[in-house]
Structure formats: C-alpha cells, structure tokens
Amino acid sequence: MHSIFARINNTSALLSSCMMALLAAIALSTLVFTARPEGNVSVASVQVYSGNTRRYATKRQDLAFVDFNITADFAPLFNWNTKQIFLYLQAEYNTTTGIKNEAVIWDRIIRRKEEANVNVIGKNKYNLRDLSTNFKNAPPASYSLKYNIMPYVGALTYGEAARNLRTCCVPPAKDPCIIFV
Amino acid sequence: MFTEELKAFRRLGFRHVLLQVLNFASVIASGLMIWKGLGIVTNSESPIVVVLSGSMEPAFYRGDLLFLTNPSSEQYKTGDITVYKIPGAEIPIVHRVMETHDVPKSIDIRKYTKSKSKSKPQPGEDSKQDNQLLLTKGDNNYVDDIELYQGLEWLEKKHIVGKVRGFLPYVGYVTIAMNDCPQLKYALLGGLGLLALIQRE
C-alpha cells in the first residue's frame, strides 16, 4: 500500500479521473448556450459562363458565378469552449430531373470574437457546376449561410444563420469562354 | 528481482497462475466487446479515429481523437466533417463535405460515376435513401480532394466511414507515437502484460 508503485498507481488513477470529469464538465456546460445568430444574405447577380476548369481541362461545362452580400454577427456564439466557427455559404437547388444539389460556394473560418462580425461583399470561391454540365434544368437556387461551431472539447454543433429564397434565376450560359489558369 | 514473485507462485500453486491468465484474458475480451459494441451502435466500422494529417487545421491537429457515427437513415449534408477511405488507399482521410448531389433511385447513378461495372447495384438495406455523390475538401487545403480520389469523380456513401460528432484534443498522440516508433509499442505491451501477470490482487 505504501510502495512507490502503489503510490504512482493511485495518483495517476486520480489524475485521469479528475481530468475526464473536467473535460466532461466543459463539454456539457456549453449545452447551456442556445444563441441563434441571425444574419442577412442577398445575392446581387448570378452569371453563367461556359468554360473549362483547371481540373478537367478538356471538359466544357457551365460554371456559375455568384456575387453576394453577407452581413451577420456571430459574437454571441463565442464562449470558453469555442475554438473556431466555420462559416459557409451554400447554394441549393433541385433540378427538374429530380436531383437535389447543395454546393458550398464560399467559406470562412472565424477564430476570435473580434472577427465575429461578418460583412462581406464577394463572389464565390469555389466553382459552382452541375452534374449534367449545364444549368438548363436548374431552377432558381436558394442560398443559405450556415455555421459549424468547433469546441475545444465536446460535440460539434451546426446551425443556419440566414437564408435567401430563390430570388435569382440562373440565366442561360453566355458564350465567352474562359480558360482558367 | 523476480525471486520473490517466483516463490509466491510456487506457494500458491498452478491454479493461481491460471486464474491470473483468465483475468487477463477477460480484460482483453471485455475491451474488444466494448469496441465492437460501439461500432455496432454507431454503424461505423471504426467509431474512434485519430487525426493523422494537418489538412483540417486549425480545427483538428495531428493527434486529436474523433468520435464518429454513420447514420444509415440520414443523408450527408454539406458542412459535415466526414472520414472516408478510398479503395486502394489504406489511410482514412478526415475532410469536410463541400458538395452533395442526391440522385433518386430512378436515375442510374453510374452515368455520373463513370463506373465500369456492368451489373446494376442491388437494392440493399438503404433502398429508402437516394444515392449521394459527395465532394470533400480539407479546411487547410486550397483545392478540393479530387487528386486524392484516385480516379473517382465523386465519393459515394459506401466510401464513408462516418461523420464526426465529437472531439477530444491531443489524446490520440499516443497511437501516432506508437506507429512512428514500433519499439515503443512492444515495450508498452510487454510491460503491461508483465504487470498483469505479476499482480497478485
């Protein structure tokens, strides 16, 4: 009972139990926060060009370019257990052939409360393309701003901050061909 | 160093040694039961994984432990962080879903996956759900994962091990250290085995 081995055994058992209790307490304590930030997404224009992407240099497909304006404040989501917030703007549409599509066109990582006030006028970071390589069967898309809170310890949570419902049509493709380098 | 233990063994008899071995075996068996039971509950073949690369920084660093589930009744959504395995590559990759395309069963999905197989996919357990084509990207990478797909154009649900639900930092570093220098693994296992056999309580 008093050998070194027994002492080390007991101490390390106590240490690991306390550590696990502390981590569980941190993870559970963040369930108290139920903030739901509201924001605003507005789409200025959607243009479709027929072009190639760098990846598939020989495949001609329609690419959509979206100009948007986002304002939102995510400061109420930051607490002691928030490591970062991952924001993403996605376009959702269902084609007439029955395929439901959701694609992320812009994202940003917020790591500190000071950067949590988001006011962005920009265009899509990622290529927006359709499975069938053209947007002929695609109705107007709705755009939603979603967030994912990543904690230091615990469960990941998701939420939606803003949604813009089907106000912009996806126009037919314009001819100028753009080769991406 | 072992003379005392050897004397004690001779005193207690062979039965005692067998009892110790049985205790050891039951500890290992219950560990395995818990692991497989967790796999069944979460519907994932590997419900706890360790992050191996830095492509999801600053969210996940090398050595973090991730808890996964693989709900068969739910579709994957954009923004989910998934762990997937490409057939032909041994290491699972942890990245975030960027695009999802839900293709209803009435449309043959092989048109989009350039699959060479001639046989139609059998209507299996998840015939209620549409097929999904997914594209992923690591947060810390500039481009999406097409180069990692080894010829595939889209990921399908069958490639995905699970979706990340929870997370513990740094705990998994032990497994990375053990993989990097195998002597550590043998030393640890040997030491534990020895301790378990020698313990008298």
From TrEMBL, chain A:
| Keywords assigned by UniProt, alphabetized | Endoplasmic reticulum, Membrane, Signal-anchor, Transmembrane, Transmembrane helix
Its GO CC terms? signal peptidase complex
Which cellular compartments is it found in? Answer: Endoplasmic reticulum membrane
Which organism is this protein's natural source? Ephemerocybe angulata
Membrane topology term:
Single-pass type II membrane protein
Q: What is this protein called?
A: Signal peptidase subunit 3
Give the family, as the similarity comment puts it: Belongs to the SPCS3 family.
PROSITE patterns from the entry?
Answer: PROKAR_LIPOPROTEIN (PS51257)
| Protein task | Essential component of the signal peptidase complex (SPC) which catalyzes the cleavage of N-terminal signal sequences from nascent proteins as they are translocated into the lumen of the endoplasmic reticulum. Essential for the SPC catalytic activity, possibly by stabilizing and positioning the active center of the complex close to the lumenal surface. Essential for viability.
Q: Which GO terms describe its biological process?
A: protein targeting to ER; signal peptide processing
**Domain of life of the source:** Eukaryota
TrEMBL record, chain B:
The keyword Protease is assigned to this record: yes
Principal localization? endoplasmic reticulum
Membrane topology, as annotated: Single-pass type II membrane protein
Q: Which PROSITE patterns match?
A: SPASE_I_1
Q: Which GO terms describe its cellular component?
A: signal peptidase complex
Keyword Membrane listed? The answer is yes
Please give the catalytic activity noted in the UniProt record.
Cleavage of hydrophobic, N-terminal signal or leader sequences from secreted and periplasmic proteins
**What would be an example GO MF term here?**
serine-type endopeptidase activity
Q: Where is this region: Disordered?
A: 112-131
The record's keywords, sorted A to Z, are: Endoplasmic reticulum, Hydrolase, Membrane, Protease, Signal-anchor, Transmembrane, Transmembrane helix
TM segments? Answer: 12-35
Judging by the UniProt lineage, the source's domain of life is Eukaryota
Class of enzymatic activity (EC top level): hydrolase
EC number, UniProt record: 3.4.21.89
Q: Name one GO biological process term.
A: signal peptide processing
What role does this protein play? Catalytic component of the signal peptidase complex (SPC) which catalyzes the cleavage of N-terminal signal sequences from nascent proteins as they are translocated into the lumen of the endoplasmic reticulum. Specifically cleaves N-terminal signal peptides that contain a hydrophobic alpha-helix (h-region) shorter than 18-20 amino acids.
Q: Provide the assembly information.
A: Component of the signal peptidase complex (SPC) composed of a catalytic subunit SEC11 and three accessory subunits SPC1, SPC2 and SPC3. The complex induces a local thinning of the ER membrane which is used to measure the length of the signal peptide (SP) h-region of protein substrates. This ensures the selectivity of the complex towards h-regions shorter than 18-20 amino acids. SPC associates with the translocon complex.
PANTHER family tied to this protein: SIGNAL PEPTIDASE COMPLEX CATALYTIC SUBUNIT SEC11
Task: Give the family from UniProt.
Answer: Belongs to the peptidase S26B family.
UniProt protein name: Signal peptidase complex catalytic subunit SEC11
Cite the source lineage: Eukaryota, Fungi, Dikarya, Basidiomycota, Agaricomycotina
